[in-house]
Sequence to fold (456 residues):
Amino acid sequence: MESTTLSEAVPADGREDAPAESARRRRTRARLLDAAFEVFADQGVRAASVETIAEAAGFTRGAFYSNFSSKEELFFALMEREKTMRLEQLNSGVAQFLTPLVGEHGADLGDQEVIQTITRILELQSDDRRWWLVQAEFQLMALRDHSIAADYLRYHDEFFSDLTEIVVEALSSARRRFTIDPEEAVRVIAELCANGEARAVLADDQRTFTERLSASVPAILLALTERI
Amino acid sequence: MESTTLSEAVPADGREDAPAESARRRRTRARLLDAAFEVFADQGVRAASVETIAEAAGFTRGAFYSNFSSKEELFFALMEREKTMRLEQLNSGVAQFLTPLVGEHGADLGDQEVIQTITRILELQSDDRRWWLVQAEFQLMALRDHSIAADYLRYHDEFFSDLTEIVVEALSSARRRFTIDPEEAVRVIAELCANGEARAVLADDQRTFTERLSASVPAILLALTERI
Fold:
């Protein structure tokens, strides 16, 4: 049934906003992405098969392939969706907690204000360790598979480029700037978070993302920035 | 033949310096570790079987098991050997390039001297991207397998604790100290290096470890430290 609708001649190009994409097709893709994430988290990205993902979403294998050419292409669509969500969460956190403090034209903030603001923004960020694990597994697949390495790197680099832009602008409104290359600084802080996730899983640390990181992230951000 | 010797009643406890361990046993273990590393790098840690590792080393499956109780135990022995080697390389780099500059009692160094010294020390470090890849794969196995998670974390934490001690002492002799928690600073710098390895593999970047990192590692080390 779904597969009839899915056979509409819409290129499976991963763009959610392709004009010819129907609402129904968007829902189908979203269900496949949701199901795939659960299967990846449960079985591991390498072990997960297209059949299992299609079945978990309640579709046929054919329906899968009329939306994504491969498990890898689906993973890139997942990365794109996650990237959009994370950047929106960060933008929203900045608008909610930083902008009211510094106003339209920016203002100096004391270290304590910086620390509190970062903690509040961190609290808004999604806290699903499974995403971190699944992405790390996909990265390792990309490291061993030249056919997806370039695409993986491009998605990853786009994320950090967009993330850096938001962070640099937020810092600037608080009259601060990085003392090392901004994108490298942002990558280092993101790696600190990812590393914290790994350690939390290994040590079975049940504290939330914010509880674990509210000491270290503000400290390193202050250490890597200076007042303008 | 080898397996007769290997059946000596020596506990396979991973300690290279166990008194009862014969020179022959040490050579056997070293050959198994070398072969395992090649197999891990080639096939991936998860896919590599004990049979393949034993065969690559020229031993029987029985010989493997009289030395290591499992593939995982062998991996911990590999981590131990790698840790010892890396800490020795770092100590040797400090003795060769930093100590002559600061003498017995320490001395201030200019930023340029710090940068040059770090670059020289980095050049001494082993530059095998396969080790980084193999360790990342093992970490992911540990993240999904509670039976090895605690041991993995312990090995990992010991490494960073020892590494931090060396770095803090070296900094101190150059009259500098970290402005954030020292072990966290060292982890962040190590992650920057690991991340750089991942990007180099993905982008097929043929430059050496030092060529890629001689700009970023000294910059972040300076940014995260202050003069005493």
Residues 1-12 of chain A have pLDDT under 50 and may be disordered. Residues 71-227 of chain A form a domain with the Tetracycline Repressor; domain 2 fold (CATH 1.10.357). The beta strands of chain A are 176-178, 225-227. The longest strand of chain A covers residues 176-178.
